[in-house]
Write a structure and sequence with these properties.
Layout (H helix, E strand, L loop, with lengths): L1 H12 L11 E4 L2 E25 L12 E18 L4 E11 L2 E11 L4 E26 L2 E24 L9 E8 L7 E10 L1 E2 L6 E12 L9 E20 L16 E7 L9 E13 L3 E3 L16 H6 L10 H5 L2 H11 L5 E6 L10 H17 L8 E6 L11 H7 L1 E6 L7 E12 L2 E10 L3 E9 L4 E7 L4 E7 L11 E10 L4 E18 L2 E4 L2 E10 L9 H11 L4 E9 L6 H19 L6 E4 L10 H7 L1 E8 L1
Parallel strand pairs: 14-25, 16-17, 28-29
Antiparallel strand pairs: 1-2, 2-3, 2-12, 3-4, 3-5, 4-6, 5-6, 6-7, 7-8, 7-9, 9-11, 10-11, 11-12, 13-20, 14-19, 15-18, 16-18, 20-23, 21-22, 21-24, 24-25, 26-27, 27-30, 28-30
């Protein structure tokens, strides 16, 4: 209680400093400020707890203490507050706080201990942890920045815990233990509500020019008027110091406006715009070009293996499962013939995935000579490795994959040469519909635009200051770009033109530059640039000789030392025969350079001759090349692609 009296005396000694407070009016500069009488705040305080008591222990809890009389501990309070000012001096307030009100009791007694035949000190320790919520209805008295408050302290216990123990020194209680009655738990018989009184003082410092945000150092004290446990004589008082942050709503009344000035007539708002390329020339038209590229090549349905190996060589392009879902033939357009061939397993997987009715026979072969002579076990492993890739990566059901193994291919190359042995180490892919895996045709479309980028110059040539501007680029049907800005009287903006959004027929590229000045007036400059569309078809099988278009057919493949036309090659020749408007100008039979040169020269001419006979051409245009190198002869697949017939025809 003496602490509370001291707090009140200190508050009364604080000098009064005039400041705009709650429910106050006053000028700030040329403005009138009205502060609301309601204030709201948060506070955080820390301090000291003092417990006065006279009890031996809690009811129902074993204890041998003669008396607990006094305890101290540090405590804290946090919470919210609200107040209402009746006038500049009187008001009401309500505080809601959470408080830590614990205290640690300790009592010593000296007793004669028979087991030790002497005296010993018995220490009784009782630690309490009290978490309480409190409501504080208060009356306030304010003088300038200083405030006094006092009122009830209504406590609602939330967590009331204790921990006790009794220890002896020297000696033991029972010949074994130095500690007894070591217990903890909830404090029994705590009331549901406890009443007390509280009082405090504070001094507010404004944090802004309108004084509606304030920080207030404060000191508060409280005292409980009831026992903390109904079975004990135990009360507590405390003192706290800390800070409160207070806020009040504020109304700022601006001064009356000055008389309007005499405004001279303003010039009209006008803008200009130009569209140029990087060189500074104006853009009169935009050219949209669509280029269609086509490439055609025969598919070699073989996969070649290294000696005594069933692993697919690294030159073959193998995908993971995710990559297989994104694979398309258009991605092979930039590659050369062998580069596209090395995707042969992916081409097979794609066709099997797209047509569930297809099956494939996978025939594994060994070289038939040397270390692999008649090794059908190795041949089967090679075929099984191909089937495993199609099953796991392309998700082809096993029932559609027929695996066979042979000691040597049905149409083997010459094992007298290392190149022939390498060509026989292969897996052959035979589809149930052979035509689907004979020719690879890739069509790829690429759009481009000229110019790709333009620079737009926008300028306000008369008017007041610019408030905002908007630059737009669009076609007749699509919105391409929009940029916004503030206050710029002159802009330069580089814009990229996306060809995929431009229209191919009777479209135009439109630019709009809109300016709004500080008076709210708007002006728009517009430019429409026509789009010219052109289509280019680039067939990589067609060359030009002067004004003539020469189409080149290179789709016929022969096995080693063969010049007979199988069903696959006959389908290619039939397609050429049925093409109208062409004149065959050249038929060239080809072989790779390995083996007997005289035999190769004769074989190349035989291949060209059998094709020329079916096409009924002049024998003078039938020729042979025994060292042909359309692709690299270093690889087995390159040599197979060089065993071909190239037909050239002029389009009429």
């Amino acid at each position: 209680m003496r602490v509370l009296i001291a707090i009140i005396l200190c508050c009364l000694c604080i000098s009064d400093h005039p400041v705009l407070g709650q429910n106050a009016r006053g000028p700030i500069g040329n403005e009138q400020v009205n502060i609301s009488p309601f204030s709201f705040g948060i506070h955080a305080l820390g301090g000291y707890n003092l417990h006065t008591a006279s009890f031996t222990g809690f009811k129902g809890i074993p204890s041998c203490c003669p008396e607990y009389s006094q305890a101290t501990n540090l405590g804290s309070s946090i919470g919210l507050s609200g107040s209402y000012a009746l006038n500049q001096h009187l008001g009401f307030a309500l505080r809601a706080t959470f408080n830590g009100l614990g205290g640690d009791f300790s009592s010593d007694e000296i007793q004669y201990v028979m087991s030790q035949s002497g005296f010993a000190t018995i220490t009784h320790d009782l630690e309490t942890s009290l978490g309480i919520a409190a409501l504080e209805p208060q009356a306030t008295l304010t003088f300038g920045r200083a405030s006094l408050s006092g009122g009830l302290w209504i406590v609602m216990p939330l967590s009331m815990r204790f921990s006790q123990r009794e220890s002896i020194f020297p000696g033991t209680f029972d010949g074994l233990n130095r500690i007894r009655n070591e217990l903890s738990g909830d404090i029994p018989f705590t009331p549901s509500m406890i009443f007390g009184v509280s009082a405090g003082m504070s001094y507010a410092f404004p944090l802004n020019r309108t004084n509606n945000l304030r920080v207030a150092p404060e000191i508060r004290g409280f005292a409980l008027l009831q026992e903390l446990s109904e079975s004990t004589s135990w009360k507590a008082i405390g003192i706290r110091a800390g800070l409160s942050l207070l806020w009040s709503d504020v109304e700022i009344i601006p001064p009356p406006p000055p008389p309007p000035p005499i405004i001279a007539p303003l010039p009209d708002l006008l803008t200009t715009m130009s569209v140029k390329v990087q060189s500074g020339l104006s853009v009169d038209s935009v050219v949209l070009t669509e280029r269609i590229d086509r490439v055609i090549q025969p598919i070699l349905p073989y996969v070649f293996f290294d000696e005594e190996s069933s692993e697919i060589p690294i030159r073959y392009q193998l995908l993971n499962e995710q990559q297989s879902t994104q694979f398309n033939e258009q991605a092979l357009m930039p590659l050369d013939m062998l580069g596209r061939y090395h995707h042969v397993l992916n081409l097979a997987g794609l066709r099997l995935r797209n047509d569930p009715s297809l099956t494939i026979t996978i025939i594994g072969n060994s070289a038939g000579a040397g270390k692999e002579r008649r090794n059908t076990g190795l041949a089967f492993k090679r075929a099984e490795k191909i089937a495993l890739y199609l099953r796991t990566i392309w998700n082809i059901d096993s029932s559609r994959l027929i695996i066979k193994a042979k000691g040597i291919p049905d149409n083997p190359s010459n094992n007298a040469y290392p190149e022939g042995i390498a060509e026989n180490r292969r897996v052959e892919l035979l589809f149930s519909n052979p035509e689907i895996f004979e020719v690879l045709t890739i069509m790829d479309s690429v759009l481009s635009v000229q110019p790709e980028e333009v620079t737009v110059h926008g300028n306000m040539i008369s008017g007041t200051m610019v408030d905002r501007w908007r630059l737009s680029m669009m076609t007749d049907t699509n919105y391409l770009h929009e940029s916004l800005g503030l206050h710029d009287t002159f802009i330069i903006s580089s814009l990229h033109i996306d060809p995929s959004i431009l229209g191919k027929h009777k479209d135009s590229l439109r630019f709009r530059y809109n300016v709004v000045d500080t008076l709210g007036r708007s002006h728009t400059s517009s430019i429409a640039i026509p789009i010219h569309y052109q289509y280019i078809f680039a067939d990589k099988t067609i060359n030009y000789s002067g004004t003539d278009r020469i189409k080149r057919y290179s789709l016929i493949l022969f096995d080693f030392d063969a010049a007979t036309l199988d069903d696959r090659n006959m389908r290619v020749i039939d397609a050429i025969k049925s093409t109208n408007g062409i004149q065959i100008t050249s038929i060239l039979g080809a072989t790779d350079p390995f083996g007997d040169q005289e035999r190769n020269a004769k074989l190349a001419l035989e291949r060209a001759g059998v094709v020329g006979t079916i096409l009924n051409v002049d024998p003078l245009i039938v020729k042979g090349n025994s060292t042909y190198q359309g692709t690299s002869n270093a690889l087995p697949e390159g040599r197979f692609y060089n065993r071909t017939v190239i037909i050239e025809a002029k389009e009429q």
